[in-house]
């Protein structure tokens, strides 16, 4: 029997798994991180990607670099603490946050209603578009044109949900553990197209210089916020004020120009089903 693997189902599974895990540890899901606890620890633990430039990657010297990384470093500086970066697969982002492996999750965390049921988002600090990428030789104007193609996606990512919703959970959708594996599948010919985002092209060009891959379809615009555990009211308020500050003083604009080569987008004042503050 085929099972539709939607964000709603994933959200329920994550929430139930986390409740069980916390119960075994003698904790409760209601426990929230506080600014004072982070300052007393002297370090803020932030989830970022390790192989998804320009958002988060590792340079030749072993240092974390990228858009999310630079914003996270500003957060640590403002708090007056050290920073510890925690990397992991796309599907591990929410579990890592809810099981206290990180204090903040900033690994290209798209703000969607189902995710907002299990984590607390701030206002957006970045944005991108979720797209289908394929060879210039392939004529693709709608997703139906790609129905019979093998399509790679990172398991559990926004593009996985978008494509599965449109095509159904068909066998030719190939799911990989992370963005880098998905990109490698495309450049090596394992798949004919991939669901990605507008910055995938940077990594595709790095892996296969001179390629003819291009964005074909835009599924949606994605906004990224800093995710904290539910009920982290003080931390959420502090982060929202911090984002306002770095937007106003030009630091966030500088990060956007540095990593994306583009000005900051006009961030939405609200997103349906995704509160920016603790309710």
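^ Assign residues to that structure.
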């Amino acid at each position: 029997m085929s099972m539709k693997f939607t964000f709603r189902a994933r959200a329920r599974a994550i929430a139930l798994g986390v409740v069980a895990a916390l119960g075994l540890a003698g904790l409760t899901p209601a426990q929230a991180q506080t600014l004072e606890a982070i300052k007393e620890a002297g370090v803020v633990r932030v989830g970022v990607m390790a192989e998804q430039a320009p958002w988060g990657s590792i340079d030749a010297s072993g240092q974390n670099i990228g858009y999310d990384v630079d914003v996270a470093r500003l957060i640590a500086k403002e708090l007056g603490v050290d920073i510890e970066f925690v990397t992991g697969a796309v599907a591990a982002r929410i579990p890592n946050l809810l099981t206290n492996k990180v204090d903040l999750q900033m690994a290209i965390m798209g703000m969607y209603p189902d995710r907002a049921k299990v984590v607390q988002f701030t206002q957006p600090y970045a944005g991108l578009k979720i797209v289908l990428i394929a060879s210039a030789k392939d004529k693709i104007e709608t997703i139906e044109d790609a129905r019979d193609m093998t399509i790679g996606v990172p398991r559990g990512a926004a593009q996985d949900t978008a494509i599965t919703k449109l095509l159904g959970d068909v066998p030719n959708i190939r799911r990989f553990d992370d963005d880098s594996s998905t990109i490698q599948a495309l450049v090596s010919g394992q798949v004919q197209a991939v669901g990605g985002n507008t910055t995938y092209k940077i990594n595709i060009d790095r892996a296969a210089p001179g390629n003819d891959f291009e964005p074909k379809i835009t599924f949606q615009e994605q906004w990224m916020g800093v995710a904290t555990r539910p009920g982290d009211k003080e931390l959420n308020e502090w982060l929202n004020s911090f984002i306002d500050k770095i937007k106003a003083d030009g630091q966030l604009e500088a990060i956007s120009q540095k990593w994306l080569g583009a000005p900051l987008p006009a961030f939405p004042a609200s997103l349906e089903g995704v509160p920016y503050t603790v309710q």
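Confidence is low (pLDDT under 50) at residues 1-30.
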